[in-house]
Amino acid sequence: MPEELKPTDPAEPVSEPAPSAPEPPATLEPEHHKPWLARVLQRWGIETGPGADWALDWLQIIIIAIALALVTMNFIIVRMRVPTGSMEPTILPGSSFFVDKISFYFRKPQPGDIIVFWHNEGTDEAPRWVRYVKRLIAVGGQTVQIKDCHVYVNGVPMTDDAFNHPGHPNPERQCYYNSGKMGDQLLTVPPGHYFVLGDNSRNSLDGRFWDFPFVCEKDFIGEPFLKVWPPTQIGFMNGYFGSPR
C-alpha cells in the first residue's frame, strides 16, 4: 500500500536564506571648484592650492561688490549732502539724501517736483559746475511770473502745497519773493529747459538771480527720493511711495 503523504502545516514557518548585507557605496572625493580668478592664474601657468583658492574666492566677491556699487552710484542713484538752507524747511542744511537718476528715462519731472541738476557758478571760459537742488516750477513752453507772493504758471497761481503760496499750512512757505533780476516780469521757459526756485524764497540763489534763468534738461541729474540724514527725518520724500512733496 502506498505511503500517504502528509501535507505541510501552513502555520509552520518556512525558513528562507537571510539576505546579504548591502555593500557600502563607494566614497567619492568632494569636487573642488576653483574660483574664476584661480582659473585665470592657471592659464598663466600659476597653480593655486585650497588656501589660495579660498582667498581668491573672497577677493572675487569683493571685486564684484565694488563693481556693482560703482555702477549703482554712477548710473542709478547718487548720495547728495545739502550745505545751505535754500530749500528750508523741506530740506534742512546738512541733510543727506539719495537721488534717483534712472526714473527720468521713464517719467519726465513735473512742476512741483524737487530736482537735482548741474549749475555753472563760473563762466563760460572758466566753468565751475556745482550740484544744486531746487523745486521745479515750470517746464519748456510754459510761462512763469512771481507776484503777490504767488508763482503763476501759464497765468494760473500755483496753490498746491508743493509750491509756496499765501495759504500754505507752513508759515515759512507762504510767499515767493520777486527778487533779483527777474522781478515780476513774465518769462517763457524755452523748450528743453526748466525754471526752478528754492522753497526758502528769502534765501535761495535760483532762477530769479541768474543771467540765464533756466536749467537745461541736459544738466538734469535726478530727483531726491530718500532722506538718510538727519536720523529724525529718515524716510522717503518728494512724492515717492506717497511721501509729501
Automatic annotation (TrEMBL):
<keyword id="KW-0378">Hydrolase</keyword>
<dbReference type="GO" id="GO:0004252">
    <property type="term" value="F:serine-type endopeptidase activity"/>
</dbReference>
<feature type="active site">
    <location>
        <position position="86"/>
    </location>
</feature>
<dbReference type="GO" id="GO:0009003">
    <property type="term" value="F:signal peptidase activity"/>
</dbReference>
<keyword id="KW-0812">Transmembrane</keyword>
<feature type="transmembrane region" description="Helical">
    <location>
        <begin position="58"/>
        <end position="78"/>
    </location>
</feature>
<feature type="active site">
    <location>
        <position position="134"/>
    </location>
</feature>
<dbReference type="InterPro" id="IPR000223">
    <property type="entry name" value="Pept_S26A_signal_pept_1"/>
</dbReference>
<dbReference type="InterPro" id="IPR019758">
    <property type="entry name" value="Pept_S26A_signal_pept_1_CS"/>
</dbReference>
<protein>
    <recommendedName>
        <fullName>Signal peptidase I</fullName>
        <ecNumber>3.4.21.89</ecNumber>
    </recommendedName>
</protein>
<dbReference type="InterPro" id="IPR019533">
    <property type="entry name" value="Peptidase_S26"/>
</dbReference>
<feature type="region of interest" description="Disordered">
    <location>
        <begin position="1"/>
        <end position="29"/>
    </location>
</feature>
<dbReference type="GO" id="GO:0006465">
    <property type="term" value="P:signal peptide processing"/>
</dbReference>
<keyword id="KW-1133">Transmembrane helix</keyword>
<comment type="similarity">
    <text>Belongs to the peptidase S26 family.</text>
</comment>
<dbReference type="GO" id="GO:0016020">
    <property type="term" value="C:membrane"/>
</dbReference>
<dbReference type="InterPro" id="IPR019757">
    <property type="entry name" value="Pept_S26A_signal_pept_1_Lys-AS"/>
</dbReference>
<dbReference type="Pfam" id="PF10502">
    <property type="entry name" value="Peptidase_S26"/>
</dbReference>
<keyword id="KW-0472">Membrane</keyword>
<feature type="domain" description="Peptidase S26">
    <location>
        <begin position="56"/>
        <end position="229"/>
    </location>
</feature>
<keyword id="KW-0645">Protease</keyword>
<dbReference type="InterPro" id="IPR036286">
    <property type="entry name" value="LexA/Signal_pep-like_sf"/>
</dbReference>
